Amino acid sequence: SDFSVTESERSFKDKKKFFESGFKDSGPKPKPRQFKYINEHELLQMKQEE
Questions:
Q1: CA distance linking residue 25 with residue 33, whole number of Å
Q2: Global pTM?
Q3: How far out from the chain centre does Cα 12 lie?
Q4: What value does the mean pLDDT of the chain take?
């Protein structure tokens, strides 16, 4: 339901924020395409689970 989806989105945003900050600390520039792929992949998984 709506609550579980919100929790999943919140969890994903926290992970994304963690990875982005990790990339910034490492030095190399983050790869937007990689994040975009992961984001789309996550959305597809959420749609399949519903």
A1: 19
A2: 0.29
A3: 4
A4: 71
Which class for 46: exposed (0-12), middle (13-18), buried (19 or more C-beta within 10 A)?
middle
Rounded to an integer, the average pLDDT of 34-49 is 71
Burial readout 7-43 (b: 16 or more C-beta within 10 A, e: otherwise): eeeeeeeeeeeeeeeeeeeeeeeeeeeeeeeeeeebe
2-26 helix and 32-49 helix, angle to the nearest 10 degrees: 160
Q: How far apart are CA 16 and CA 35, in angstroms?
A: 8
- Which pair of structure tokens corresponds to residue 14? 């926290």
How much is the CA Rg of the chain, to the nearest whole Å?
Answer: 13
- Please report the pLDDT score of residue 26 as a whole number: 57
